[in-house]
Amino acid sequence: ANERTFLHWLSVSVLLGMMALTILKFESLGTISLLVSYGYLGISVLFMLYSLGLFLGRQTKIQSGQRIVSEDIHAPVILTLTLIAAFLTTGCVQMGWSV
Fold it and tell me: Labelling 77: which of 48, 63, 71, 88 has CA 20 to 30 A away?
């Protein structure tokens, strides 16, 4: 289960990274698109690091025989709010609204 959780978090991070690179490809949108793209890249890297830390921490506990609490209430909420903010920002930029 630990590996599956790691792969799920990693897949979300890779998807965000791909979105960032796609936006970065369209540099003609200007400075705002670069900022949005770098924002997505930053979020992607943060969640990659989070998933790696979560995986390694749980793996250490599994190997030492400690009890593992597998419920994570905060990270999915933070991920959802971050994605909503990023999507709204991208939508505003594409519609030409200033943020």
Answer: 63
Whole-angstrom Cα distance, residue 24 to residue 4?
30
81-88, long-range: CB within 8 Å, 24+ apart, which pairs? 82/43, 83/16, 86/16, 86/36, 86/39, 86/40, 86/43
Sequence-distant (6+) residues with CB within 8 A of 58 are 2, 5, 68, 70
Q: Which two tokens stand for residue 59?
A: 């793996």
- pTM for the full predicted model: 0.73
CB 27 within 8 A of CB 37: no
